[in-house]
Amino acid sequence: MTYSKIACVADTSPKAQAALKEIKKNFDIVELTRRRMGAEAIVVLGGDGFMLQTLHEYMKMKLPFYGINCGTVGFLMNQHSVDGLQERLDRSRPATLYPLHMYARRTNGKVMQALAFNEVSMFRQGRQAAKIRVSIDHVIRLKELTCDGVLVATPAGSTAYNFSAGGPIIPLGANVMALTPLVPFRPRRWRGALLNHDSSINFTILEAQKRPVNAVADFTEFQDVEEVVISEQRKSGVNLLFDPEHNLEERIIKEQFTY
Q1: Are 121 and 201 in contact (CB under 8 A)?
Q2: What pLDDT shows up at residue 4?
Q3: Model pLDDT, residue 152
Q4: Among residues 11, 28, 48, 198, which one is catalytic?
Q5: CA 74, CA 49: separation in Å to the nearest integer?
């Protein structure tokens, strides 16, 4: 596909701003508002965090996102270069990311919702360990998980915090989610689970007043939750564009063989 009309967003780093300046020399950039305004793709200049922010902000436009790494890791980005950008865009291949939907009910009765492309995490707020009941598709699987927290990760997010916490790396097309505990104390030997992508995961916070827990969906955080329900949101999928030799699926596989 040919992407002749692009919008471009950049973070505030000197590297990203320099790349934006170079792109503007060769492209007639489409102004990006809440409407598509004729753009066929969004070029994102920054790091993984900035890409996540951009996905959340503009996902409703249903446009593909092509990232150029101006940050550190750049797992969701292509290599840093603006040379031959038109050809790179035209040769790029899409990878579809499906976010997790988080429904959270707080101890004050308020209901909050958010989406996460990487993971939804729960953390203890105080000095005492959290106690969490875990149900999958309305079946209680763990009556009481005593831990510092627990997370649910997408395949794209499985190489990030999930992997650092001892969770598995998931191939992009595996259609599973990772359920990973954070410093579990009881059950002593439980190390998590892989769940079908269409599973509904319910966390009930036990002793929520005494042992407060917060919930985080990517960078959206809610404090004092007493129930969190997580499910995949297939209707909100977004396409990331990658150079054929630098595609996301290959990088996820390679992560399993690094040491």
Answers
A1: no
A2: 81
A3: 98
A4: 48
A5: 9
d(CA 172, CA 113): 25
Reduce the secondary structure of the chain to three states and give it as a string: CCCCCEEEEECCCHHHHHHHHHHHHHCCCCCCCCCCCCCCEEEEEECHHHHHHHHHHHHHHCCCEEEEECCCCCCCCECCCCCCHHHHHHHCEEEEECCEEEEEEECCCCEEEEEECCEEEEEECCCCCEEEEEEECCEEEEEEEEECEEEEECCCCCCCHHHHCCCCCCCCCCCEEEEEEECCCECCCCCCEEEECCCCEEEEEECCCCCCEEEEECCEEECCEEEEEEEECHHHCEEEEECHHHCHHHHHHHHCCCC
Averaged over successive runs of 10 residues, the pLDDT of the chain (259 residues) comes to 88 95 90 72 95 95 95 89 92 95 97 97 96 98 97 95 94 94 93 96 97 96 98 94 87 80
Token pair listed for 118: 């990487």
Active site residue 48: yes
What does the pLDDT look like over 132-155, one tens digit per residue?
999 999 999 999 999 999 999 999
Q: Which two tokens stand for residue 237?
A: 């999928």
Give the domains, in start order, of the chain with CATH numbers.
Answer: 6-98+237-255 (3.40.50.10330), 100-234 (2.60.200.30)
